[in-house]
Batch of 2 targets.
Target 1
Amino acid sequence: MTNALPSSGRQIANGLQRSFPIVLSYIPVGFTYGVLAHKAGISDINVILMSILVFAGSGEFIAVGMIAGGAGALAVILTTFIVNLRHLLMAASLSPWMAKWSRPLLVFFSADITDETFAMNSAKAVELNDCKVEALSLNITAHSSWVVGGALGAVASGLISDVRPFGLDFALAGMFIGLIVLQVDSKVKVITAICAGLLGTVLYACGLQQFYIIIATVVAATFGLGIELWIKR
Amino acid sequence: MDQTLILWIIIGMWAVSFLPRMLPLQLLSGRQLHPLVAAWLKLVPAAVLPAILVPLVLLEKGEGGELHFNALFLITTLICFPLAAKYKSLSLPVVLGMALVAAGRWFFPA
């Protein structure tokens, strides 16, 4: 860490390279979102605007489903809040590594926190303070590919009568499999993951379809922390 | 559908998505978190991702909102998971998973 910093050009290139796996999954998943959103009756400009402003894969999918089902504005917004509240926890866990960032730059960075950019940035968290350009390059590339994927999907939507024969409805699940593989790298995390998955399913099946994510997350992370403290005792 | 209303929904979604991302960094940046809080936060991604994924691949919503067991998604997940773990790949399970689901529906139409 004490070595000379990589040049800005080098950092931009590194960010592009590290965002590549994200881009490869954002294009098909974003495409699926675009197709579904268009089919839900959302105009192309609004499809794109949602990807630019909200930038949250599962949150956007859920919102599109609710809008298609005729849900009210407040219900959609509240659900988005709950589904995306996990980003608060992600932002908080990155914050100790970002002391040298200016406040405006932090605002810019925080708009691009997703599960995927968080996974990539937290994997190299110790370098976050020094490699600002690299982190921003990674974030911006990922965000752009999400917007492009959604726009392509909205345009192609008219050509696709049903997404199921193409397996597009699995895109989001596929992306989450890749993320879990990246994130779950210790025994305690495996226990936490299994607990969260089971609890989330039970809550969902019981009808808590707006709150299951946040409840399962908080309970499982707390349970995992208990296990960790118990092991270290 | 009223696009102005959708635009307002999007603006509302933006506000409730952006604030939780932005505030922790503004308020906490560079501060040392209590070790217990830090340890808890480290477990959050391992908790939130499966909490979304597992119901997504096990259960499918029917026309009237009733839930069914989703065998095709489960089998696809069981194939993709070890491969993604072996190759440490984000995109492999997306592309392979969609191909398997498409093939599954082609060969075994419901």
Target 2
Amino acid sequence: MIKSIFSFSVLGFLVLSCATATVTEPDACDSQAMSFPLPSLLALPSQVQSGQTFTVPPFSKATSFDFSETLNKISDISSDITVGLNQLTLDNSSGELSWVDSVSVSMESNTLPSIPLANWQASSMPGAQVNLLSSVQATPAQMLSYFESGPVTLTITLGSSSGTEVNASTLELLQSLKGQLSTNLSVCVTDSATVSKSL
Amino acid sequence: MRYGLLTAATLALVCVSASAFADEVAVPVSVLHPFRYGFGVDLGVPSGIAVGFVLHPKTDAISLEASFTENVISPGGRLSIQLDPLALLPKLPVAIYADVQAGFTGRGTIPGHSADLPSLGYDYVNLYGGLRLGKAKNFHWFFEAGPTYMSVTTGNFQTVVPSSKGLTIGNPTATAWVVPTFETGFQVVFP
């Protein structure tokens, strides 16, 4: 009798066992060094009047990130994935981006068209980092489809489309950079997936 | 279907045993006694092998156990509280009962695979129903099964997952319900 009960129990485990899990990858991060080619700037006049401003046109640079390997490992076991960004920053430890009042980021892949990822407007002078995370416009579904598809090209545009008004000291700073404004773009992707398996 | 058979068989056993000891049952008995203590050994998933100290505080209907556990990954610990109302029928040799367990396994790696597999640790809660074979007040063998809620953490992921193009990868975590898990073993209490 006891043997039968035990046998039924073991058989029950084998037939009915199942697991439902939520797997979370807290962050997959990458950081790319970027050198923005500076546009031709006005020469600084010998006599600068107080409050005089100069217009710096927007300038852009593209760089590539590839999170597809990590995401595809998870999509192999689950079709129910949620993707988000938990870091999108430009390094400003040197202060060379402190004049920037607008940053737009677009993304495109080999198979998908360019769409806006983030559009940041300065509310105050940025600190050691320009944090673009609060200005992300792409939806989680868009991010999943782009980041999963392969390498994604992010195009960063510094400055507003009509140009950015800067003072003389900022213009002098930009001219001292000898045509290249260098920074690092850091991106961290987080994802979670729900997995149900019968054992 | 199979659960139904198991439940029916268990209830039948309990009824037969209860009838056999009807005389004993009919007589009011004192359910309180001095502390009984002893030990238990069991084997199961997700606990692994467990060796524990057992305490029956004044009544056999409640059994407390603190166990040391070990599986191939890492040692751990487990606390459990068993509610066994049929233990109030002291000569009943078979009973069903409830057992709530909470435990942990420290983070570790499968021996020999520390370089190619991530480390793994987990906390868990088992919500078990059990079948006791033997009297609660001395030696008995048991089978338990039910759902388990697990919280799993991993470590060392960056070093074991090939990262392309300078990616840094955080350690994944997971929460899961696994249904059913099980364990079997014995307990002995004195006096």
